[in-house]
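REQUEST FORM: STRUCTURE PREDICTION
Request ID: SP-0412
Submitted by: Lab K.M.
Chain count: 1
Length (residues): 320
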Amino acid sequence: MSPGGRSFPTRPARAVRTWSVVAARRLAGVAAGAVRVVTGRLSLFYHVAVIILAAAIAATLPFTFAFLARRLLASWSAIEDEKVFLVSTELAVALVLVLVLSRARTNWRNRRLSKIARAAGLVHLGAANGILSRRVARRLKERHAFARDIMIIGSTGFRTLVEPKGDLRAVIENCRSAKIMLLDPESRGAIERVRTIGDPEITCESLRTQVEQTIAFLRALPAAHQRIHLKLYSEPPLWKLAILGDHAWVRHYPPALDVRVLPEYVFVHGQDPAGLYTAFYQYFVMRWNDSAIPEYDLLAGALVYAGGARRAVGGASSRS
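STATUS: Completed
RESULT:
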């Protein structure tokens, strides 16, 4: 006991404590070394086990084949005179061969078509009908065009842009900028389209009404005059085209059918010059830069021709 009332550990106690700490550290080091050795040898043990297993299988192959041969001979001696069984076996083998070869031929043809599609840049094919397919297409378009520059060629744009469930309704509201080309309802192309499609519900008046509703929808969009540009072409529509960022959504306008009955193809922009995305992009740019196609002034509400003439859709011409 110390004079101040405090007790200090004796020298033997301190020695025991130090020895215990050193022993614990050494044991921990030995254990860690053992773990490292075992871990490093696992791959060696695995390879050795695989070699032993392979050697055992190879050593038993002669006995296995001899056993199978004896069983086959015994079975054949029992069924060699069974004509019905032999004929059934031949038919079954022939059927299996036909199915296997047919499947192989189909797979080879599908791989060849898949290679052609990849070379053309085709990444998606939308079915003409079906609620699920339309929903998937709408979601893909929204993702492809979000905050991107888009380019659209269509007929009236009513079903695509104006209807609440239109494929490009949300796209046009959330894009960065848009260039849109629609059919002039008072042009010869509109008259030709109505005549060839032959649907009693599609008339020049209904086509004009749909175009006017699309224009009214575009004019009502926020900041439409700064980021949305509209042109009206006069030829019969050929392609229903939507270039949304790096993806081109394409449908063909058949002369006598509704465009909705045909599938929609999606081409992606890539480094392969054989891809069709570039061709459709250049097609749109060529049409858009054509000075013969007037631009619709969304602010003034009139078509503006290259010579300065203006015309309201459905109205008479005037010169500003």
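NOTES: Residues 126-319 form a domain with the Endonuclease; Chain A fold (CATH 3.30.870.10).
Reviewed by: T.R.
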